[in-house]
Amino acid sequence: MRVLVTGGAGFIGSRLVERLAEADIAVTVLDNLSPQIHGSDPDQSSTFDRIKGKAEFVRGDVRDRAAVERALTGVTHVVHLAAETGTGQSMYRVAHYCDVNVHGTGVLLDLLSSKRHDVQRVLVASSRAVYGEGSASCPEHGLVMPGQRLERNLAAGDFEAKCPVCGRDTEPAPTDEDAPMKPVSVYAITKQAQELLVMETCKALGIAAVALRFQNVYGPGQSLVNPYTGILSVFSSALLAGQPLNVFEDGHESRDFVFIDDVVEASFAALLREGLEANVINVGSGRRTSVLDVVHALGAAYGKPFDYAITGDYRVGDIRHNYADTTRMREMLDVQARWHLQDGLARFFAWVLEETRRMPVRPSDYQVSLAEAAEFGVLKRK
What we know:
- The chain is α/β, with parallel strands linked by helices and about 375 residues long.
- The protein folds into two domains: about 1-135 and about 175-380, NAD(P)-binding Rossmann-like Domain (Rossmann fold, 3-Layer(aba) Sandwich); about 135-175, no CATH class.
- It contains 14 helices and 18 strands.
- It has a seven-stranded parallel sheet, with helices on both faces. A three-stranded antiparallel sheet has the order 7-6-8, with no helix packed on it. Strands 10-13 form a two-stranded parallel ribbon.
């Protein structure tokens, strides 16, 4: 058995490589060591350092056919993590996100369909973003699937997702895998495309395929130099750099934060468990946390005054709420989230403080990302 992990020097990939190496499973990593994730000097990247000596490393882009073909040598299982992941950034770097996420996946699948190989299973990282707003509860119509929020409502400070039948405010409900996909950002559309490409192509080729719809993953190793993704790392970097934090909308938007260790265990099980074919599985905590709760937890953990403002600004492509129904994860993978947010944040905070002593955060990056989003009309300011 040999596992190829595309994007294996990144946040999730590096931890999965460690887990596979601990189980004496041979690993190949394909990664381009993107400066947006690893910084200008990848040798200073803690996640890249984590995989050294644990995997055969191929430096290359997932869009590079020769590099992917080289990385597939002797491989029996593929974990496809390589992707661009910034929701806001995707709305003004449309071609780039489609190129990396969709074309890159197409290169991998084209090789599996046209070249001799030993691949038996492909695991693709999908996202909670494919659901859009996900499931919600209307006081009159019960469980509904709201559509994309209207910009006129957002501009007026009315942020809640609406019932598609009566237009009333809804309450968030857990979203299961049978919910329809209603992506509302370019990033989400590319993740839907990745998932469908892998599931349908592998089915035609007789290769087992599993799509894991990750919720908001956090924990030690999350990039602190990438201001376009990972709300906890973005907020932490801003706090430690003494920057004011812009809390979008009214701060009550919420997400399902799932700790990296739980994600790795779910991925490990999905890779090795017998009988999994053509399955789509949510990977999350099954609990939702508001952005304001995160802000307060960060301030308490760091013991520093947190300069933030609830601005009412909003981003095109953002959703209001989403959290996972994790029944299928428990039943199919025999895995459930063991890390509660308080304990996971404590581990994350300790790592952030240690990491920033080793490699100080660049104070300008967060503000640059906001300026870019505003310039391209993605961030709407009140």
